[in-house]
Amino acid sequence: MFLMTKTPDVNLSVLDVAPIRKNGTAAETLRETIALGRGTEEMGYHRYWIAEHHNMPAVASSATSLLIGQVAAVTSHIRVGSGGIMLPNHAPYVVAEQFGTLESLHPGRIDLGLGRARGTDPWTARALRRGETSGKDFPAQVTEVRRYLGTATPTQRVRAIPGEGTHVPLYILGSSTFGAALAAQEGLPFAFASHFAPDQPLMALEAYRDHFRPSEQLEKPHAIVGVNALVADTDREARRLFTTLQQKFLTHGRGGVEFLPPVDDMSRLWNPHEKATVSAMLRVSAVGSPHTVRTQLRDIVKRTGADELIVQTETWDFEARLRSYALLAELWAD
């Protein structure tokens, strides 16, 4: 495998939601997640983040910290983390203990990306926390996690062990100006979820940079932009493979989420309104041959000023997914 060595100004990273094929198994998907982490490290990607989702038959990324540990155990230098942990679903103290443990096992390689969306239904939220939760106290929760992972004070009665003193780097994830403002205020890196929420990235990133205050973790703003990307030998083949993700968003709009094989013609599956809705949600995407995707990604970087792109690629066939990431690494190094 080739190693990505060029384009030092903008790193490429990977976001994995661990998709489960229709009629497939979670075990199969989890094995592929581990293999993808190992493969993308060999290709030279900067970091590998795993999402958090619950009660979704087509997604296996529910126990995010466990998966991070599995990927970190089979890799040696790629950064591994959460994209992200949804704090309303968890006690900040437990999150600090889990990521303190991961950092203790894999020092200097663990990232803690934090989000405020529950990302699920009220019943699942209650099952997770045994009560009503919201994102309103997200800033206080971030502060709490940060305190547990920092240097303990002599009067601190509750300590995260492992955790305290590890200073695991925090990242704020968001799809609006709320997360941008918090990341700026706290002096943390900010990752915008353009890959499914493309409406406000420029406004949010501008606010983040304008109001950024340096911190011990970060001296200047660091903006990460989420992008859907799919690379194949030809534009036509890439567009066909991309119909798997289009169908996933289509079925989500109809009240469920299914991970389905690609089709030759999406016009049979959606009506004009659904096509417009799905296309709008996926408009921050780079799909095509290496030449096409290189041009599209450079345009995204130019428009957003991204310091880093974090790429989500979903294909029905795992080998096609690996090949897409390999072609992407190669074209980014040229």
Automatic annotation (TrEMBL):
Gene3D superfamilies to which the protein is assigned, alphabetical: Luciferase-like domain
Alphabetized SUPFAM superfamilies for the sequence: Bacterial luciferase-like (SSF51679)
Gene Ontology CC: cytosol
The protein, known as: LLM class flavin-dependent oxidoreductase
Residue ranges occupied by any Luciferase-like domain in the UniProt entry: 18-307
GO molecular function: oxidoreductase activity, acting on paired donors, with incorporation or reduction of molecular oxygen
Family: To bacterial alkanal monooxygenase alpha and beta chains.
Domain of life: Bacteria
